[in-house]
Amino acid sequence: MRMLFLAPSQMSKGDAAVAADLARQIPRKRLQVGFVAAAEAMPQLHDLGMPTLPLTGATPAENQAILDRVVRGFRPDCLITADAFAVDRSSDWTGLTVDGLRERYDCPIGSIDRVGWQDTDYTADLYGGDSERLPRLLDSCDLLIRPCPPHAPTGKPAGAGRPTVVHAGLHRGGLKEGGLRPVTIEDAPAPEAESKPVIFIVNSDWEYRNPRGSQAVAELIEALPGVLHSHFAALGRPLRIVHVSPQAWQLPIAEHIDYRHFTRLPYPMFHARLAAANLFVTTNVLSATLGRAVLAGVPALVLQNRSTVEREAAPAWLGAAAPGLRTAHPFRVAPLGWYDLLDPLLTASPYRDCFATAEIFDRESVLGRMSALLDGGVGASQGQADFHESLAALPPPLDALRAAVAR
């Protein structure tokens, strides 16, 4: 079977990473995989051993021609978008849309669906109070792949209608298993024994973008580094913060915090540092790295905000840490919002038990969760173990994918 993945997002590398981790879970003798991706995703996909060609055309027509040549030569049994919405959002420079793929190529079209969009009526609550109705792109797909995590590992058979839904587990990390080419990059050695606990955090390009020009979003983007640093400093203990992000924190760092910033780490080093961390912290419950932390057995904490917090009612520490934050709005994925959107997913999936959660502006709760996790408390370890067991019980994804494509 041949599967061609399309990952055109220039902002988020998480979509391409999830697609690669899905492909790596399937034995290479039974599946041929190819990727066509934005140039920004190439280094990570190559680190993971994925054969990838970049969309480097100067015009939409040139990028369409690149994909045409790949499809003619590779002859995929199915063309899978890493994110259908990212395909349509990139159409101004790629010339590609989900509907256009269906019209252009004589093969089933599928998409990875991390949210479970059909259960949300395609309506997203945005940070700041607005909402957005998205086009029902997934309804026209032949196949939806719901990766586990974040979805519940379930092997229930697909219904008779379209699209066919397949739940598939993701690769647990490392490069020794599942590479599509001989691994020439050795797994990075485990970091030397740390004298202080290590907290691992990551950010992507899109987390610094504000395409709607929202003042509320701009305030949150500016505030989050100070809020996170304030929590870490308030623990009052030596810490090492490993931060992988396009942007470093631009603020004074507490004396007992050893802050180390990396614009990018090669995947072997990235995964080694993540797996060796004492704690992973994120403000994005859909983070691909959160899923990798859970699969690697790393304690994890998701910081969210469930209610509106006005400046007048904010605690004193917040005014000092984020003086420009006038009003804080609900979010589970910062800075998008998406608090209500993800209710169906988190309610239905045991993934929610694989990490701790705290309200980001509740100092006592955040410090309590972090201290318990750093000190080796039980935390969500049992939830992770149960999730791993359910993943092991999933039927082989390739069999389900073949059956779906044949329908």
Write the topology of this structure.
Layout: E1 2-7, H1 14-24, E2 32-37, H2 42-47, E3 52-54, H3 60-74, E4 78-81, H4 84-89, H5 91-94, H6 98-104, E5 109-112, E6 123-125, E7 131-133, E8 143-148, E9 164-169, E10 198-202, H7 215-234, E11 239-244, E12 257-262, H8 267-276, E13 279-282, H9 288-296, E14 300-304, E15 309-310, H10 316-321, E16 327-328, H11 343-348, E17 356-359, H12 363-374, H13 381-392, H14 397-406
Parallel strand pairs: 1-2, 1-4, 2-3, 4-5, 5-8, 8-9, 10-11, 10-13, 11-12, 13-14, 14-17
Antiparallel strand pairs: 6-7, 15-16
Descriptive overview:
The structure is a single chain. It is globular and about 60 Å long. It is 33% helix and 18% strand. The protein has helices at 14-24, 42-47, 60-74, 84-89, 91-94, 98-104, 215-234, 267-276, 288-296, 316-321, 343-348, 363-374, 381-392, 397-406; strands at residues 2-7, 32-37, 52-54, 78-81, 109-112, 123-125, 131-133, 143-148, 164-169, 198-202, 239-244, 257-262, 279-282, 300-304, 309-310, 327-328, 356-359. The two termini are 15 Å apart. Residues 176-191 have low confidence and may be disordered.
Instruction: Characterize the overall form.
Output: globular
- What is the helical fraction, as a range of percent? 25-40%
Radius of gyration: 21 Å
Strand order of the largest sheet: 3-2-1-4-5-8-9
User: How much of the polypeptide forms β-strand, as a percent range?
Assistant: 15-25%
Number of strands: 17
Structural class: alpha/beta
Regions with little confidence, pLDDT below 50 for 5+ residues: 176-191
Count, helices? 14
- Mean pLDDT score, rounded? 90
Q: What is the CA–CA distance across the termini?
A: 15 Å
The biggest sheet, with number of strands, parallel, antiparallel or mixed sense and barrel status, is: 7 strands, parallel
